Records
---
Amino acid sequence: MIPFTVIGGYLGAGKTTLLNQLLRSAQGRRIALLINDFGEINIDALLIDSQVGNRINLANGCICCTLSDGFHGAIESLLTEEPRPDHIIVEASGVADVQNLAQYGHSPDLQLDGVIVLADSETVRHKIRDKYVGQTIRRQLAAADVIIANKADLLPEADSFALNQWLQQEFPQAVVHSATQGDVALPLLLAIHANDKALDSAAGHAHFGRWSYSRPRRVCPDSLGRFMAALDDSVLRLKGVAEQSSGCLLVQVVGRRREIRAQPKVLAAGLNLVAIGLEHQLNADVLDRLAHQILEFTD
């Protein structure tokens, strides 16, 4: 299953800057980026290894493909790659319905990892009231798992804090982060598995903490759902695999969205969970106690 992420945001919110930052800091991941036009993101020439038709191969293993053959055709071509991409990211146009694009993440061989929407910190509260574009912006933000309040440097600190509070109140399903020049830590944007180098790097970062939990037994799905529901905002991302008699369950928490998805293949024995959060907020002892109190095992 290839993680599938949609990145959206209204015109001028900073998607191009974020995408370039992602490509430069892939940390060994083979990222496939689907975009409308190469020219829109102005890929760093030093990164380009080769270009053939509607595809650019980058020196760090990432690839960029345009949507000239259509959305479905572009995804199908990526699924035939050897090796396959580690992660597929779609850049939505400034007026696109990101929720509709996210549905492709439920296709065979793909797993929806999340919807990330950028907002222009300086203008979003004004534009969301605009009679022409306001509904488009609100619809995009309402579909987000993570909202990046970009260009935070253009606001005084107190105004930036107030904006984040407003975004969190208006769109409670999402986790809100401030950013300047699209500079957001990779683990907050892409899926993290227990053995990912990116996660190990994040866990050692001064600003991030990691919690992991493994048991060599099958967990009761109902108790797993209760555990996920009990997690608070200190858990920014959680992902895991739970072995079942008929396969396994893929577990994911992104912001306030919780997902448990059946998968016919057993990917790991027992229960394996990994979470990340801000170092000063994520409390491993609290999560250990919560897991001990709620999780129930069948054998």
Note: The domain at 2-188 is CATH 3.40.50.300 (Rossmann fold).
---
Amino acid sequence: MNTRPFNVLFLCTGNSVRSIMAEAILNREGAGKFAGFSAGSQPAGEVDPRALSLLKTLNHPIGHLRSKSWDEFAKQDAPKLDFVFTVCDSAANEACPVWPGQPMSAHWGVPDPKSLVGSDAEIAAAFADTYRMLSNRISIFVNLPLQSLDKLTLQKRLDAIGKAD
């Protein structure tokens, strides 16, 4: 039986929107069972203010959220990762660091709301849609019977979650 929360790292290139949202969602939805983290291969250096505003509006704590490199999680003193999920297409195609302990991984790509050009309302809707997609996938994930699934079945389930809308 697992005596500590499962550590989950969400990766995206810039670590400014999608991976940040996923971290916040998992830390609320999976509280006690999961600990969410996020990072990027080329971190933007700041969290997108629209992502922070949406998370704050939805009552997520935001004070600890920051854009950071995935190198922080490849260090010897980093949390032992159980799962690593990419949430943007470019991060899925990049060479990732070797994670100690060989965590399970899957690609859960969602569109980047930052790349949308449109009115403020259209962009806000894109951010909300990204949040909804991540929230749905994370809800499925936190409700998996992890202790009773063999590794192959769990991997298939993780991959299927990445295709859920």
Note: The mean pLDDT is 91.
